[in-house]
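Co-fold these.
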Amino acid sequence: MTTANTALLANAGTLAPPAHDVTVIRHTGSSRIAAAACIVLLVAMVTMPWWGQSGHIRWVVEFSVYLAIAQMWNLLAGYAGLVSVGQQAFVGVAGYTMFVLTSNFGINPFLAVWLSVLVPGLLALPTYALLHRLDGPYFAIGTWVVAEAVKLIVLNIDYVNAGSGMTLRVMSQYSLHEREVGIIWLCASMLLATVGGSYWLLRSRHGLALTAMRDNPVAAESQGVNVKRLRFLIFVAAAMGTGLAGSIYYMAQLRITPAAGFNPSWANICIFIVMVGGIGTIEGVLVGALIYFVADRFFAQYGAVYMVVLGLMTLLTALYARQGIWGLIVSRIHIPLFPVGRKLIMPSQTATGRPQ
Amino acid sequence: MKWLDALIQGVLLGGMYAQYALGMALMFGVMRIVNIAHGDLVVLLALIGITLSVAVGLGPLPLVLVLVPLAALIGWGLQKFVLNKVVGADSLPSLIATFGLSIALQNLMLEIWSADTRSMSGGGIEAASVNVGGIYIGLLPVLILIAATLLTGGLDLTMRRTRFGRALRAAAADTEAAAMTGVNPRVVYAYATAIAVGILGLSGVFFALRATVSPADGPAQLIYAFEAVIIGGMGSIWGGFVGSMVLGIAQAIGFRIDPGFGTLAGHLVFLTVLATRPQGLMSKG
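Predicted complex below.
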């Protein structure tokens, strides 16, 4: 409940201006190191086409996509309490829009990626209107059925080649190097928008509202948080972020089919990464995405056994460690990498406080 | 005649869905436990059944006698060792736990049985049909529908008339108050899940006789069971049955309109019910 208390303190602060000698701590040593590391990694990422191997660039693209869709699911399930198992609807719809815009309308593919996020945003509106009154498991199953329905509709549309899918032939007019630069820069922008955007949002004034809503939606409502509007905005934003990741992924794949684009395994990836890594934290998503990426990259060649292990890990997390692996780590050593809380230091205290 | 045929085939298809929906109505509808592995358990039992029928040469009836106790044991263990640890007001933990179990089960079955589709030979019963006024009615689907109707009626009576049924309804309504009156919710829940999964032992045999089975089929069966329970109305055992009929008929009619529209028609009917009557058709609320 410490986060709710922080929210209360901050609300009280707006009623009565704090004394001048009260300081607010928002960073720690570990978080400054993490921020610097992020900048270094981002620079390394955008320069990769000039020093890295093509195979490794594909790894970075894949990892970025997992990170982005998982963080979007983290916002949904971790903060808004909206457990969706139908995120593949937004992946597929955005991917298909990008293919149609480039192949059938001749729009530049790197521009089409950005335009394509509008369609998942639009799809999110009726989906949310239909499902928002439903609680917990109803909502989850509803999102899944919507995703299945969208998949079956796309399967029946001859304009997008029905079940046989589409190929992104336009990309052949670019050299391999040009494609790599384009895709890796798209990935960097996507990470800034999804992960960076979430971090910024959670540290902003709205972050207090989100955190309060995560801890107790009813109490948050009574404190003046517009829970309904916030949930709606998060659902639409997560749909667009997930769609962006889907467009980039299928641009790199050069091919999309209904079976792949609307595969429920997209939702599985989100759930695994967030639940095993640690729900409600950005660090948890990083940890979960790393585990999933390594498992998928290096153990998939030995058959489906790694998926059995990942499934059992999810089961064990739900049974014994609800806060995930990152939760187990922070309960032992306190090293927040992306702190979103506020720590007030009163004049009488020495500045030893640590933001949560 | 075409539409009457679709209606009859829809009802028969609904009989198959009703078997999955029955266990789901008990777990999701009454106990509010979300079991994502429900469909994978049907597939697991069907695959075990097919292997036994090939390896030992068991016929459908002896298989039922083997699979139902095995399924009940699996259900009892699932509740005792997994679900009892995650039941509560928040349904997310049970959803996530059984989601993990579902992924593990699907891939384990893929390792054991590979991705091939298989089917069970039932000594001719699976192909037998009678011609009623120009409409062919399969004997096996009729048997499935009869079994589903009897099971639903039996479970409904158990829930309403027996001590166990009262204890289960009490535990689901208010766990603590039920515990104070001498009901042990965990034990009652373990028996209830044993019943819910035990029924799947029978459905597994019917499933393997009626259609082809592959390890990846679980999620589709799960989604039909969920849809049936929600269409019918939570908390009502007959609701799951009615929901299954609605779903089966919607799919069969959709399929007659366009073969690509069958499953989609079922989903659209479900979403329509969700939008206009989220409490379900049979619910009094």
